[in-house]
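Lecture 7 notes: from sequence to structure.

We start with a single chain of 290 residues. Read the sequence below before looking at the structure.
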Amino acid sequence: MTRLTYGAGKYVTGGNKGIGYAIVKGLCEKYEGLVYLTARDVGRGEAAVAELKKLGLEPKFHQLDITDQESLDSFRDFIKKEHGGIDILVNNAAMAYKINATEPFGEKAEKTLYVNYFSLLKTCDTLFPLLCPHARVVNLSSSAGHLSRIPGDELKKKLASPTLTIGQLSELMKDFIQSAMENKHQQKGWPNFAYAAYAVSKVGVSALTFIQQRAFDADSREDIVVNAVHPGYVDTDMTSHMGPLTIEQGADAPLYLALLPDNVKSPSGNYIWCNREIVDWINGPMPGPY
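Now the structure, written as tokens:
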């Protein structure tokens, strides 16, 4: 793959374990140039890099907490000074409550969306100005991030609108949080199952991706592509190790999207399943089983 890089690097948020770790490993194996593993915790991040170096790989480490604007700004300034820009950005960092978590639903909604949607949005706002022409962005979504997870027809219509803006989407995400705190989310068309907060956060990530691609299509920088991906049900801490897929299997589709060739027409601004298949985010169906 030919890429105009300006000495730019490849960056994976939340890369010290699980799918993020496997994505860093795959980028080191498949793509020449600098690959940065980022993590909130310095010790864990450096330990992950040390493990990869034992395999003969050479990732770099930089601390990054996507919930902290100061950390984001510091990371942005470092990239700009040292490398000039970004070729590949994989937004993997996220959190999820366990199914049996006892915290109030409103608290779960607030914290989950703060990390998974609003902090991802802040990351994009901070780092997107550094994307090079032909850059690739991968937003880790989920099978829970399909529009079918939203029961309310009116909400579905708003989320699926081709003219939806980031501001409008963020207002919908805030409405879910407020409704959850008031225990009115179900009557307003939001989901009410055990992992509803996680699902709404990932629906938000998916919808955000489509808006971002529309903006990139009008950007003066050539051929910037962003896709949302469901990596599969993977054996990680987040799934309490219940997923049947290995982290390497979970990294397959994200790596495919991160390494799309120049001037690709498709996938672009799509919702991608773990088997690399483009899925209709509005109408489905969702492939099975993972």
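The longest strand covers residues 131-140. Keep this in mind for problem set 3.
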